[in-house]
Amino acid sequence: MDRSLVLARDVANTARxxxxxxxxxxxxxxxxxxxxxxxxxxxxxxxxxxxxxxxxEDPELAMQWRGLASLPEGTLGAAVWNHYQSHGFTTPGExxxxxxxxxxxxxxxxIGGYEVDLIGEVENAAFGAASSSMPGSIxxxxxxMAMYEGRLFDSVVTxxxxxxxxxxxxxxxxxxxxxxxxxxxxxxxxxxxxxxADQPLESLQKEWxxxxxxxxx
Length: 217
What we know:
The protein has about 220 residues and is mainly alpha-helical. The protein has helices at about 5-10, 15-25, 30-35, 40-45, 60-65, 75-85, 100-110, 120-130, 135-150, 170-185, 200-205. It has one domain (about 5-205). The protein is about 55% helix and about 0% strand. The protein is globular.
């Protein structure tokens, strides 16, 4: 069955817990999570938090992320590290920080220039999903729509009030983000960002053909 239909079936049956579980299992971050050899054990031991957070220390991942701090200003990696520091985020790989799958989407926040708030998360999902042919990419966008507009199920990461996307000005922002992703020459989900972390951010944005961000009215 199509991934989106699985989620729609659960929502239609008002099975909120099952809908949340299926969302995290079937969208692209869940695909990355399940590539870990011990992920099912983590999920059994720690519950839904295992989908998004570091629930057991991962020194190798933490070291990889801390290495971004030494990159020159203007590089993609330095911008992502600064993004983490400016928001007070715990380093991925440390307990309570993002796990590898969730941290993957933070690169897109920096590349696209999207804020870490509810509408910024929707913009980021629209941006990344529209660029990608990865399994579960479109479900990412549909899932955040269901969470932040209809409140049909909950986010593991943050609470949300419904009708966020339909607020004045927000539909235009989401459509613009989707158009930026569609016109991007790079599948933004199918890339190891650490392999290009030392490259200038602006050069990558230009190489990938990103259209300018939507400016506030």
